[in-house]
Amino acid sequence: MSRLDELFHKLLSGSCTQQEKQELYALLATPEHDANLQRLLDDAIQATTEDKAVDDERAEEILSIILQAQPQPAKRRTLYRTLTITAAAAAILALAIVTIRQVQPSTKTTTQVADVHSEILPAASGAILTLGNGQTIPLDSQGHGVIAQQGGAAVKLGKGTLAYDNVQPGEATFNTLATPRGRVFRVTLPDGSDVWLNAASSLRYPTSFDREERTVELTGEAYFDIRPVAGKPFRVKVAGKTEVQVLGTRFNVSAYGNDARIATTLLQGKVAVNRKVLQPGEQAQLTIGASDMKIVTADTSQVIAWRNGMFNFDNADIREVMKQLERWYDIDVVYENGIPPLRFGGKMERGLTLQQIMRILAISNVHCRQEGRKLIITQ
């Protein structure tokens, strides 16, 4: 058994000392060990059963190894395999379904990155606010405090949050909060309801809710925590396609323009979508272009994973995965040689850089390269 094999197996068993871990990192710091790493990972995957799992700490250490190792040059493959992302290591370690809470950032430059200065970071807090008079305010560059007056309300910016203070009855004006790709933001509406906007989304809403109902308009994806107000139901008009009627509840709506369907998922309370009432844990799915809507039982942890700082895939094809990466990292994905028939399942922290994601994909034989803000899938 080689020293690399010995150290790797000691890591899996939890008997690796800190000095041995550093030795293992050093061995994997050169490209010639990539093939051996792939072999060890494949062997570990095949040997793993539901009764033999790797705990969170071991999985985190394995991911750290992968992120620090150099990738192999991209090679063309004619035979594809179905890959499994685990919570530990995204696309490669089907060793256990666990959750990684922290990862060590890689300091190495992969050979797949065309520009060593073009590191792409995950999404950050930021948005653009459009006032009733059409004025736009980039919230990324504003200091905290009152940034505008709208319809008798003071528009107040905090850390990653927009709120409306001292709301006065009167004629309301409409504001629009929009998150570009690579940005997320939270707004507290004039009635005290909270809305978290995912990347590439927008919410249009009045600066006061004086009428018999409260209505907002959404494109993209948002998580709602609605404050009950007697006699004033809450409504969400979704991408001009459907409407969600709400009574004091928590729910998620996903309605991106490049998705095939609109999904409304109820976590708590009560909503009606196209007059069909949902129970907690149910999801209404409306396929774009179709008249019928179906209601299914949803994995709510997967639906709101983005709100909790996670990617969570369930047998998702590579296009679905890449659409999420496009929005989260503000990139464009290009398939150079067609779309690989790959599927993914499991969890992954959203705090990784794009280069770390590429490293994980490379070890998985999903080959890609970065050119500016393009991620080119070459497999």
> Which spans of ≥5 residues are poorly predicted at pLDDT below 50?
49-53, 69-117
**Total number of domains:** 2
Write down the secondary-structure element order: HHHHEEEEEEEEEEEEEEEEEHEHEEHEE
Named CATH topology of the largest domain = Phage tail protein beta-alpha-beta fold
General shape:
elongated
Report on the structure:
This protein is an alpha+beta fold. The chain folds into two domains: 3-120 and 311-377, 3-Layer(bab) Sandwich (Phage tail protein beta-alpha-beta fold), CATH 3.55.50.30; 124-305, Jelly Rolls (Sandwich). It is 20% helix and 35% strand. The strands form three sheets. The protein has a 17-stranded mixed sheet that branches. Helix 1 (3-13) crosses helix 2. The protein is elongated, with a radius of gyration of 23 Å. The relative contact order is 0.14.
